[in-house]
Amino acid sequence: MSRIEKAFRAVLSKGDGAFIAYVCTGDPDPHFTIEQAVRLSDAGADILELGIPFSDPVADGPVIQGAMNRALSGGFATEHIFHVLRSVRRRGVSKPIVIMTYYNPILQYGPDRFCKAAADSGADGLLVVDLPPEESAELDGLAISHGLDVIRLVAPSTSSKRLEHILSGASGFVYAVSVAGTTGARSELPSSAEELVKRVVSMTKLPVALGFGISTPEHVRAALSMGAAGVVEGSGLIAAYSSALPQRPDALDSIERHAREMKRATLRGTVTRQSAQR
Amino acid sequence: MNGLLRTYAGRPTPLYFCRRLTERLGGPRIYLKREDLAHTGSHKINNALGQALMAKRLGKRRVIAETGAGQHGVATATACALLGLECEVYMGEVDVQRQRLNCFRMNLLGAKVNVVKTGSRTLKDAINEAMREYAASSDNTHYLIGSVVGPHPYPTIVRDLQSVIGREAREQFLAAEGRLPNALVACVGGGSNAIGLFHAFVDDSDVAMYGVEAGGEGIETGMHSASVCAGTKGVLHGFKSLVLQSSDGQINETHSVAAGLDYPAVGPEHAFLGSSGRVKYVYAKDSEALSAFHMLSETEGIIPALESAHAVAFAAKLSKEMPSNGAMIVNLSGRGDKDVNQVAEMEGNL
After folding, report:
1. CATH number of the structural domain spanning residue A91
2. How many helices (H) and strands (E) does chain A have?
3. Nearest-CA residue of chain B relative to A69?
4. Quick check: B44 pLDDT over 70?
5. Residue A80: inside a domain
6. Which candidate among A8, A57, B121, B200 keeps its CA 20 to 30 Å from the CA of B331?
7. How many Å apart are CA B21 and CA B29, to the nearest integer?
8. What's the confidence (pLDDT) of residue A187?
9. What pLDDT digit, counting tens, does each position of B311-335 carry?
């Protein structure tokens, strides 16, 4: 069983949900990312997602675009993600870490070399947002051979037939996208989320985490009550620190405060959980 | 579709023999495929009408599109007005500035122009924004991509809708000369007018084909958009092709005097035709395109789009290397009215 699956099992056995925190690597520099990852782990995040900035992030809304721009203007290079991973592990963070990226940086780094470097640096899984399953056989094989879980995205528009195909190659957990559209905070969870979570949960034994638009404790509780085993937050976390960025200690405090609040909302107390249905 | 192309878009467009340009260059006979005479002033209407009909058939009430030079935006706005579809066009801020006239035309046609202020604020970023919007609204909206780029099956759809150019040109040339041309020349940004001309000739191995990319300030300066000449394999906007990028896979900002060629990748079929050797990809610099813009205006009374002027510039070079009993077809993909202000400003005449 992978470290990701174990993390879910531990959380679910207590009746809680998993809080997965996305970090845009290199925003505004790798050093800040390392500190941020440590603080998120301290605040109780169950899994970390390290994003690789990309010049043309078509799946992302304005907040993550802004973070990626800051990282790229700061001189981000693909190599930095491995440096960050190694440093975070050296600082004692043992939580599972997933690399989330667009495909082109992997293609240029060399898919095999990338997967090896990721695994050697302490990553546990790989999520490629713009690689459809029809095109992903090579990379999936390499990821698996290096011991990385292959995390896959499913969306409200995914047909059940296609869902079956996508799930057949997934491991670690399934990332359910709450809404047709891009990443970014929304005032409430769209109605499409519940239908999707229920559909995916009924088709897989893997934990299902809901992401896109999650930014408040209310969202967390709503997602878990739909049957999700966890939630992913990205833009909300970035919004929590980006305005405070000139003062780094304040920015880090702000991240930690927000993460603690989000994690608290995943704790036992919400009735219908994926774990409870097993 | 065929009825609309004939009665609305003005097809078939003429194949015109350039007597004075041929004499001036003293080489092979030069023919222009006059896509500039199609309704809205470029070949873009061929694809826009086809996909707008598709959108209707798919039950979509709304169409979104990206545009660089504005020609595709205008063609899409036109097709949507004709078919009663809502239309929104994404256009980079830089392109809005250099192609103001086309912005106004889109508004006249009832379309909304969304100005894109992210990234390089050109065509690439307009596509990013259109893709984000499509992800959010695909249940009632069709994304009408304007070039042979994007996720499958867009490159095939756009090629098939543009291939009418080459089918007509082949037939017209056979009627005029009783044989096939020795060479075809077309400009390549994403590559829709070029693939449209080339497609019907791919199996005619005696017909040489040249795709002319935007050399900008020169390849060595990095200020260009020549993806086949200077790009490497990459994935952008849902397709794998030749891409102008850093060694880390971040997409470069590009440059061309012609907004419609200012794109850091090329349609995947062009990458294939280039690697198989069937089509030779070359480039013309901004300065060469501007000279050709003047030359064609003066010798033939035809003001070409700055995009198409790249093809004319290379045709002039090619004519020096070809036997004078040969003949070539240059795709005049669009007319230059939209560029008159920009050229006047650049040359200090405004």
Report:
1. 3.20.20.70
2. 13, 9
3. B119
4. yes
5. yes
6. B121
7. 9
8. 87
9. 999 999 999 999 999 999 999 999 9
Order of strands across the sheet that contains A149-150: A149-150, A125-128, A97-101, A47-51, A18-24, A230-233, A208-211, A174-177, A152-154
Distance from CA of A137 to the nearest CA of B (A): 15
- B257 three-class SS: coil
Q: What is the identity of the amino acid at A121?
A: S
With 0-12 CB in 10 A as exposed, 13-18 as middle and 19+ as buried, what is B299?
middle
The DSSP symbol for A187 reads: S
Query: Given this model, what pLDDT does residue A278 score?
Result: 41
Per the CB < 8 A criterion, the answer to whether A71 and A26 are in contact is yes
User: What is the mean pLDDT of the segment spanning B11-19?
Assistant: 98
Task: Write out the H or E segment, with its range, that includes residue A115.
Answer: helix A111-121
What pLDDT score was predicted for residue A255? 97
Residue B186's SS3 state is strand
> CA angle at residue A58 from A52 to A61, to 5 degrees?
85
Residue B255 annotated to the active site: no
Q: Considering only CB atoms, which chain B residues are within 8 Å of A77?
A: 248
What contacts B113, CB < 8 A, 6 or more positions away? Answer: B73, B88, B89, B91, B96, B103, B106, B107
Residue found by looking up tokens 């992903």 in the block: A136
Beta strands in chain B (DSSP E): 15-17, 29-34, 62-67, 86-92, 112-116, 141-143, 183-187, 208-216, 232-236, 239-243, 279-285, 327-332
Instruction: Give the tokens for residue A146.
Output: 């290096």
Kindly state the greatest CA–CA separation across chain A.
49
Count of domains forming chain A: 1
Ordered strands of the B15-17 beta sheet: B15-17, B29-34, B327-332, B183-187, B208-216, B279-285
Q: How far apart are CA B181 and CA B203, in angstroms?
A: 13
Task: State the complex-level ipTM.
Answer: 0.94
Any B CB within 8 A of A133 CB:
no
Beta strands in B167-271 (DSSP E): 183-187, 208-216, 232-236, 239-243
Confidence at residue B12, expressed as pLDDT on a 0 to 100 scale: 98
In a domain? residue A274: no
Distance from C-alpha of B332 to C-alpha of B42, rounded to nearest angstrom = 8
- Whether A272 maps to a domain, the answer reads no
Contacts of B140 (CB under 8 A, 6+ apart): B60, B61, B62
For residue A58, which residues of chain B lie inside 8 Å, CB to CB? 128, 131-132, 135, 237
DSSP string, A18-41: EEEEEEETTSS-HHHHHHHHHHHH
The pLDDT tens digits of the residues spanning B224-279 come to 999 999 999 999 999 999 999 999 999 999 999 999 999 999 999 999 999 999 99
> Residue A219: pLDDT band by 50, 70, 90 thresholds?
very high
**Which residues on adjacent β-strands are paired with residue B15?**
B33
Q: Which residue of A has its CA nearest to B131?
A: A58
DSSP strand pairing (A208-211 vs B232-236): unpaired
233-262 of B, contacting A, C-beta below 8 A: 233-238, 243, 245, 247-251
Catalytic residue flag (residue B199): no
Would residue A275 count as lying in a domain?
no
Q: What's residue A269's pLDDT?
A: 62
- Which residue among B118, B136, B139 sits closest to A65, beta carbon to beta carbon? B118
Domain membership of residue A165 as a residue range: 3-264
Question: HSE on the CB side for A117, CA within 13 Å?
Answer: 16
Q: How many Cβ atoms sit within 10 Å of the Cβ of residue A221?
A: 16
